[in-house]
Amino acid sequence: MRLRKPISRLSMRIVLSVFLLFVVALALTIGYTTSQTRAHAASSTSNNQAANQASSTPDASTDSLQAASSLPAGCTNDGKVDYPGAIDCVITPPTTYDCNNDQSPGNCNYTSSDRPTSCSVWVAPNQPLAVTKPCKLNQIVIHDTEGSLASTLSAFMCLGANPNNSSCQQVSAHYVIDLDGKVYQVVRDQDISYHDGNFWSNMHSIGIEHVGYDATGYQWYNSAQYLSSARLVAYLLKKYHLPLDRSHILAHSTVAASTLSTSPNHVDPGPYWLWDYYFHLISQQGAPLNSVALPHTITLHPRNNQALHGPKGPYGQVGTSADYNFFKLYTGPSTASGLIPAQDTSDPTDVSYNVEPGISYHYVNKVQDPAGTGDTMYQIWYGEEDQVHNDTPSYLAAAKLVWLAVPPGDGVDGTQRPEPDIFHTASLVKMKGENIQIYSRPTTDSRYVIGGSTDGATFFSGYTLIEDDTSSNLWYEINYNHRQAWVPASEVVGA
Ligand SMILES: [Zn+2]
């Protein structure tokens, strides 16, 4: 759940209060006309809770985080869950937690729906729900909790203790996986949980939390937890007919914030999550790996992350800081040229100047690093947040050519187009036009612009979809920067 830049509880409450006042005022003056403006399941919700839960990151060596030894309060082993074997912590009753219930408090924390058949979202008191039909599940989003199982579940079940408690946060996830691999279900698959701060993404995804801390993830994420998560994800991929790739199984850190100006981005599960090892485990459960290597693309597979590496032991003995696996970006064709603008290079979870494993980027040029590191430098188009040190930053990311350093053996250079198959939906897209905008959601709405691109910039697209509630508005998901963003078909041509 963790944010890149923690914000104080007080300031987030002020932001939330102002936001709610704004929404209420808006409702009173013009009424609600879209499913994306709501006092309940607001698009800002889970960012706010995540900010609070991100207020501290204890060092693992001094923290006493342990797997739960008994069933947490509010959880039972009754089997009334979507995933066989999960412990039932599904939050109920709807009058307390469900934002589609007029009686629920304003800080309710999930939206009941009938996914993938439809999503139904509260609009205003005594008004019909806004229905999106179908409401396909496109993504599985991977998180970490930044706290223990008990603290995470108590945050998700906060209203149960006191429905009038205004400090309960609008946060939830479908599943939580403890350090010992036990799976706890909190929200039904068919319902919308508030796990990633981007309401479109929440509508179309399943959120899975892993107990641990991202900044010291190598001390937490362990073999029992990875294997248990892999089994759950393999089950979900089969159930919802999704491919095993990084376009459909996302890090929270690659889900774009709704708008960069109002919502800080999230950084979990962080640079120590072993993506290739994890995907290897998922594929062992019978979900075929969808590996795509289009011409002139570089796909990142660090050796310290690959299938046979994995954490060696149980919790407490799982890895070292050498497991850091983000790839850095430079201003020129040399590692001596300096990094692109970075927010805080002393923070291992900083995502302003790097990219994650498993992600593919189109490259324009490549050279051997003249600084003698042995790295290959790939020139890629990247949405750079070049205002990170400005007192009044624009927050928009501008597509620029930057240089990605890839050590020997850590990347796959695509040379030929793979044979098409049922899951082969990837392509390269070239931006066209005078005023190209990059969106955090595939929705025709100027509120969700997170950056811009120049004519001719080329990006790797993992898949396409038709905009909700339309029959023909085609959108491309693209690997834009550390985030996976969206562009409409009207702005691109095939590359
Ligand atoms: Zn998260």
Automatic annotation (TrEMBL):
One GO MF term: N-acetylmuramoyl-L-alanine amidase activity
Transmembrane segments: none
Catalytic activity: Hydrolyzes the link between N-acetylmuramoyl residues and L-amino acid residues in certain cell-wall glycopeptides
Domain N-acetylmuramoyl-L-alanine amidase: start-end pairs: 127-270
InterPro entries named among the record's database cross-references: Amidase/PGRP_sf, Amidase_domain, NAMLAA_amidase_2
UniProt feature, compositional bias: Low complexity: 43-57
Enzyme Commission no: 3.5.1.28
Coiled coil: none
UniProt keyword terms in alphabetical order: Cell wall biogenesis/degradation, Hydrolase
GO terms, biological process: cell wall organization; peptidoglycan catabolic process; peptidoglycan turnover
Residue numbers spanned by region Disordered: 43-65
Cross-referenced PANTHER family: N-ACETYLMURAMOYL-L-ALANINE AMIDASE AMID
Protein name, UniProt field: N-acetylmuramoyl-L-alanine amidase
Lineage: Bacteria, Bacillati, Chloroflexota, Ktedonobacteria, Ktedonobacterales
